[in-house]
Amino acid sequence: MAQEQQERKIKVVIAKPGLDGHDRGAKLLARILAEAGMEVVYTGLRQTPEMIVETALQEDADVIGISSLSGVHMYFFPRVLELLKEKGMDDVMVIGGGIIPQDDAEELEKMGVAGIFGPGTPTYEIVDFIEKNVRRR
Amino acid sequence: MFDKSKLDSIAQQKAEWEEKVLNPALKKFPERKKVFTTISGTSVERVYTPLDVADFDYEKNLGFPGAYPFTRGVQPTMYRGRFWTMRQYAGFGSAKETNARFRYLLEQGQTGLSVAFDLPTQSGYDSDHPLAVGEVGKVGVAIDSIEDMKVLFDKIPLDKVTTSMTINAPATVLLAMYLAIAEEQGVPFDKVGGTVQNDILKEYTVRGQYIFPPQPSMRLTVDLIEYCFKHVPRWNTISISGYHIREAGATAAQEMAFTIADGIAYVQACIDRGLDVDTFAPRLSFFFNAFTNVLEEVAKFRAGRRCWARIMKERFGAKNPRSMMMRYHVQTGGVTLTAQQPLNNIVRVALQAFAAALGGCQSLHTNSYDEALCLPTEQAVTVALRTQQIIAEESGATDTIDPLAGSYYVEAMTNKIEEEIEEYIRKIDEMGGTLAAIEEGFIQKEIQESAYRFQKEIESGERAYVGVNKYVMDEPPPTNLLKVDMEVGRREAEKVRRLRAERDQKRVDEVLARLREVSQSDENVMPAVIEAVKAKATIGEICDVWREVFGEYKPESFV
Fold this sequence. Notes:
The complex is a heterodimer of chains A (137) and B (559).
Chain A: H1 2-5, E1 11-15, H2 24-35, E2 39-42, H3 49-59, E3 63-68, H4 73-86, E4 93-98, H5 102-111, E5 115-117, H6 123-133
Parallel strand pairs in A: 1-2, 1-3, 3-4, 4-5
Helix pairs in contact in A: 3-4
Chain B: H1 4-28, H2 58-62, H3 78-81, E1 85-86, E2 89-90, H4 95-107, E3 113-116, H5 119-122, H6 146-152, E4 163-166, H7 171-184, E5 194-196, H8 201-207, H9 214-231, E6 235-236, E7 238-241, H10 243-247, H11 252-272, H12 277-280, E8 284-290, H13 294-315, E9 328-332, H14 344-359, E10 363-365, H15 378-394, H16 408-431, H17 434-440, H18 442-460, H19 486-502, H20 505-520, H21 526-534, H22 539-550
Helix pairs in contact in B: 4-6, 7-21, 11-13, 11-16, 13-14, 13-16, 14-15, 20-21, 20-22
């Protein structure tokens, strides 16, 4: 009985798309989300959108968090959203962080990114956001 | 330096001061915190006295600038002779756009060039490679072939200007291109001056721009070092980097310690190749960060110089004093800049640059205030350059050498950082050296722990960060940010396809075959790389040969 009542942990995939190797933020967030009780998979570097979505599918992820610091966000985020839609996975929450100008962040949010958390965002804000907005199954 | 009876008398006076002056004051008005620490977590005492540097030996620990152990600086006259080189890292979009920025910066008084390459170039991919999509020209200039290099240095005389190139895994390729175009300008190899970063070890731990596995990568590194001391004597063959280690979250001591550990590995690799230390060591150089705690940074630089000098002399038996000099470039800390209230960053950069000047760097890049948001606009990079010029001309810091020497605090902190460095080197030696420590994930985990601790301090409010967790304001979104269009990628891809169609393909096939042959032997690759770039082989094609011969690095992730 106790096992059935146990709430399923929120599953998060943290991804680094493209060629950039700066992963301090991605790794920090992965650790902090795990401390907050989520199950986290960090993809490592050099992920293509296809690889990211495949990992999310394999891991049955509720959230994909994308770290983008090298100006590639307007290519990678829409591509991930597109692939999720193709695979019928568009209830997976997509969030992001890194160096993303506010006007681009607004455009990405219009496209379906749930939230962009830029430099200086306290990690507890991200934890709260996920817990409040993630799909419940 | 202080005799025992004097120290006893000071200790006595200190005890009386604590009882009669300090404690009553503390009772009325406690201090702001229970414990004061630097951003690196090192505790800072209320007041430093000779008691904190009781064993201080001026001749042994400091000496004089330009002489062993170089604590006070690597040149005898330092900035009284000549200011550090003002060398702003720049690059974006196409070679033409970057060339314009280079010429602007030189016109505004910078004294050396520093090239930022885009990620496809740094990772050895041409602009039309599938993995280059979205990335071309975004964080630096896109260079596919020698033709792009020519445009990049158009109207820039390579006998008058030195250039630093931030390129690592394919450093041999970019150096080959640079040498070839210098030659075309009429500048022979032995007159060309500059630096390549060529530091692959830190790519594995903190930067991620690796291509090949460690062993063949070290081979390429040593090939470049060896080729240069024979044929390009004015070239700094490596810029052993701590900057990125610090950006990843390391403390000041860790930044210095892990850089020195990398340096030890490179020196050893060259010695294992059969090179005499005094032939190549004078052209090794370093690259460090400068954070906002001025005093800690100065102590870090001084500790680093002294440590490296001792290591080169005692561990590697160097005889030439030039082999013992830690010559370095500094960049102010990118990770310290805030997206909130960006103008505040001008102040941060000024403090950091001041630390670099007081610390005795040979070359300096100052970040632009908008860099937490985008690449620098022309206006922002001008302010950054002026920051250096104001410090050099107006602050007085350049009129005397190592002015903070003798400060009880700075000397105590220098000693403390040196001790921490030595402890890390000991640990890493016990593990079997830097490569082993990297494979085990030791270096990565230490850095991540420090990053985590810092994040917790900021989020709890324990450490104030102006504009971020204290003195926060509502702000309108920033405007006029520099953005690189996706169109750049399309143009560059088209250009490289055209290059491949128009060049002498037979010649390219020949040079690539030769390169493959050389890479499979233990001949130095540089001559073959130079031939290849002259034949207009692209960076992607050259690196593809190596991907076949050496394999690709597949990292294990340490979270």
